[in-house]
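Justification of resources, computational component.

The compute hours requested in this renewal are based largely on the per-chain cost of generating structure records like the one below. Each record pairs the submitted sequence with a full structure-token output. That output is archived, and it is also reused by downstream analysis tasks.
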Amino acid sequence: MMFKDGLKRDNGADDIPADEYMFVDSLEGIELPEPTFINLIMNLSGNALIHLGIVKAPDYEQEVNPEMAKHLIDTIVMLQEKTRGNLNETELKHINEIIYQLKISYVNIINQQ
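The structure output for this chain reads:
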């Protein structure tokens, strides 16, 4: 289980206060988006932007983590390669643009360090 402090705990978690959990136990009252390819890519890219420090994590303090951002970008590139020939025009346009923007952002962050 993951907690707000970023640590993963597999045992002894019962004594952790409920407000320390990153994830909620219930989705009651939350409208989930349709599970589409574009939503998957947007989710991965949003997390990459958080790890690049471009977007602030909504509920916790997040350090810049270019290694994790690169992993997420590489995951999106892998999905692009694995779905080649199976995406519609809109999906293809979105994934190409997202990959381009993420790679530019990644290079900029690395060059600033």
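Confidence is low (pLDDT under 50) at residues 1-5. The radius of gyration is 17 Å.
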